[in-house]
Amino acid sequence: MIAEGKHIYIYGEKGKAAPLIVMNTFQGNGSDVYSALCTIAEKELNLAVISDINWNEEMSPWECAPLYKNDSPYTGGADKYLDKLTGSIIPAIKAELGAEPEYTAIAGYSLGGLFAIYSLYRTDVFSRAVSASGSMWYPSFLEYAEKNNFGKMPSRVYFSLGDREARTRNALLSTVEDKTGKVYDQYKNKGIETTFEMNPGNHFKDADLRLAKGIAWILK
């Protein structure tokens, strides 16, 4: 299906009030994530994968300069996209499913993982979240998380990283493990059920499996 110019791929069974996991992706249809979930998840779910994301625009909470020469800047369009996501895209997904979900959660990888966590502060739609190899290095995000309240207190939040992700000469990216740990500690101290899992490899290793593992964890 298409909504707000985005291709949306829905996996699961229509008409069932299973949890709805909304996943924003840079490219692809998310079929590999769903295939992995079918082998490891202990509960039925519906997965809605939203593609055609303008990544550096729609997943970034505010402006940030490019990380490397000749890269694109981050232009801070997350709030605008979140309005579309909650106002029309998710209602269209629910209409397609034909049932009100048990709850709605959000998942994402890399900058999509940052957006998943950011959305917890900007809306009350999501009760659980997955940030797989999330971009917690993003300038001022740790401070934002410290100072702001959730739209609705989440019940379960999953964080993960690769154990080689912080091994970089880039000053911002090298902070990702420390900052992810600090956001995780904030959530734990608030009484949220949360975990921070380290996976082998760099940022680009086993992305689909890392997402599936996070989604399976929040479904428990």
Automatic annotation (TrEMBL):
InterPro entries assigned to the protein according to its UniProt record, in alphabetical order: AB_hydrolase_fold, Esterase-like, Mycobacterial_A85_antigen
Any Pfam family matching the protein: Esterase
Protein name: Esterase
